Amino acid sequence: MFLTRLDVHGIRNISSASLSPTDGINIFYGENGSGKSSILEAIYLLGRGRTFRSRYTSTLINHQAKKCTVFGAANCTKQAVPYTVGVSRDVSGSFQFKIDGQRATASSLLAEAMPLLLMNSESFLLIEGGPAGRRRFLDWGVFHVEQQFKAVWAQFQRSLQQRNKLLRHDKISQKELITWDHSFVGLSVQLTQMRKDYFKLIEPVFYELIEKLTSVKGLSLSFQQGWDEDRSLDSLLAENFERDVRRQTTNAGPHRADLKILVDGRAAGNVLSRGQIKSLVAALIVGQGQMLRTSRDKQCIYLFDDLVSELDQNYLLRLLKVLVGVKAQVFITGTDYVPLVNVLENERIEDFAVFHVKQGTVNSLNELALKGEAQ
To answer: Which of 324, 373, 375, 299 is nearest to 26 (CA)?
Structure first.
């Protein structure tokens, strides 16, 4: 899908902005604090119902406004008639989501209507951080590919919470817990199988893009389900009963799953440079989008915040060529548009647009203006 129109009101220092993105590469440049990342935040709000900068969505509302609103019109490859997505949040915390004018009750419906992938400074945690971020990353793909995932995942979370609650009871017996474990194990097996099936599909896509977009050698990816694969989960839970009671938490299950990323057997975050990590993260993110396109014939939107930093021209060339090749809509921010435009023009890639962001105001630059700015 492609955003054909974006209206933003009350997002940080952007009081009001309207723009018509191109279907290809959209570049937003300006000084730090100008509001260029807020454009990405607005698009992210449309697809996720929340901000990527803070746990509290209210923080993105302009301090002079009582609410923020983002409206987008989009075209889908399977749908000739454009559809709309709208999100409104106010300072009290209340929200309103609408898809084609109809109220949506959950942010997951926004994610289905407008799938998007973000790469920003926190994306380094995909390599350097703990397993929780990698689980969320993997589950994004499973959510979009496996229709039953959302329901099974929600049921598993409730079952896990209930089990942990019981473990905090002083007098819980192993026999009493076994009654609850039957449901927990069943949901764990379902959830894990969905993750395994998805990883099997996307693993070759990851390796292909890693080879195309990075200089990293000796890299390996593996999915770890969260408990010993040679053991049944129910027997392991029974064996770990005393430890689980002592720690008051469940120590084995899908909530402990991980996507291991190693270089020559060592954690990638301990081996690679910042530039290599950034190129690797981009390869993984683009791989997720390509799998969505292959499995569901559905295109996602890519958001890249401050893409140019820590990357050389050769890497930019390879990444932009891949994105253009899959006909993806891309939104990129940076303090300077020239490095990106040089790459695009040298490759005779014409489907791009440049927007200048200054003090919360967004202006589109046409070809003549671009030449004037460059001089």
So the answer is: 324
Interior angle at CA 70, CA 69 and CA 71, nearest 5: 125
The model's confidence at residue 368, banded by pLDDT at 50, 70 and 90, is: very low
Nearest partner of 360 among 38, 3, 46, judged by Cα: 38
Tokens of 114: 């407008």
Q: What pLDDT sits at residue 80?
A: 56
Instruction: Evaluate if residue 286 carries a pLDDT over 90.
Output: yes
Distance CA 361, CA 219 (A): 43
Identify any residues that bridge with 70 across adjacent strands, giving them in sequence order.
8, 87
Q: For residues 316 and 252, is the Cβ–Cβ distance under 8 A? A: no
Residue 340 CB partners (closer than 8 Å, separation 6+): 25, 27, 307, 308, 316, 320, 332, 334
What pLDDT score was predicted for residue 53?
82
Pairing mode of beta strands 352-358, 361-365: antiparallel
Phi, psi of 77, rounded to the nearest 5 degrees: -60, -25
Q: Tell me if 190 sits within 8 A of 152, measured CB to CB.
A: yes
- What average pLDDT does this structure show over 155-169? 93
pLDDT tops 70 at residue 78: no
d(CA 327, CA 44): 20
Q: What angle do CA 359, 365, 371 make, to 5 degrees?
A: 120
With bands split at pLDDT 50, 70 and 90, how would you rate the model's confidence at 310?
A: low
**Cβ proximity of 52 and 41 under 8 Å:** yes
CB atoms within 10 A of CB 142: 22
pTM, entire model = 0.91
- Which tokens is 284 given? 């993984």
Residue written as token pair 């408990």: 227
- Report helix, strand and coil shares of the chain as percent, to nearest 5: 50, 25, 30
Average pLDDT, the chain: 89
Angle at 40 between CA 368 and CA 345, to 5 degrees: 35
